Amino acid sequence: MPPYVLAHGIDVVDLTAFAAQLSQPGTQFLRVLSRRERLRANRYSGFRFAEHVAGRWAIKEAVIKAFSQALFGQPPIIAAEEVNFAEIEVVADAFGRIKVQLHGEFAAAITAALGEDLQWFASISHDGAVCIGSVILCRSHTARTIEAPSEVTND
């Protein structure tokens, strides 16, 4: 049985504005990256650097949105200002395909709220001055089952 979708998160970044923000003296924006993400980003320069970092930022924001959506009807369990974005890591394989790895307190909060049987599917796309990050949060097939309703209505 394949994983089933719990939630979807999406974020769009204006690359021109993002690049301007990154170039500001004393910008704190790179603190959202993990050590491994910073090392990978440093392979690039100029606008390509901003484009790469914007993609990671979009995925991190999309993770937050998917997590929040998975808790629909429940109060947030982490205040937005308490999220350490470096604990949401975007890693890539040798072919550039990405996945999300969670660490630290953020990972513990996700596990406490939703369980350990989760998978995160992520995609980044760039077109002109726009970057989009999309994340689908799924429960793996080993998870507890949810009964389908016996009748569906369009109320």
TrEMBL record:
<dbReference type="InterPro" id="IPR008278">
    <property type="entry name" value="4-PPantetheinyl_Trfase_dom"/>
</dbReference>
<protein>
    <submittedName>
        <fullName>Holo-[acyl-carrier-protein] synthase</fullName>
        <ecNumber>2.7.8.7</ecNumber>
    </submittedName>
</protein>
<dbReference type="GO" id="GO:0000287">
    <property type="term" value="F:magnesium ion binding"/>
</dbReference>
<feature type="domain" description="4'-phosphopantetheinyl transferase">
    <location>
        <begin position="9"/>
        <end position="108"/>
    </location>
</feature>
<keyword id="KW-0808">Transferase</keyword>
<keyword id="KW-0460">Magnesium</keyword>
<dbReference type="InterPro" id="IPR037143">
    <property type="entry name" value="4-PPantetheinyl_Trfase_dom_sf"/>
</dbReference>
<keyword id="KW-0479">Metal-binding</keyword>
<dbReference type="InterPro" id="IPR004568">
    <property type="entry name" value="Ppantetheine-prot_Trfase_dom"/>
</dbReference>
<dbReference type="GO" id="GO:0008897">
    <property type="term" value="F:holo-[acyl-carrier-protein] synthase activity"/>
</dbReference>
<dbReference type="GO" id="GO:0006633">
    <property type="term" value="P:fatty acid biosynthetic process"/>
</dbReference>
<dbReference type="Pfam" id="PF01648">
    <property type="entry name" value="ACPS"/>
</dbReference>
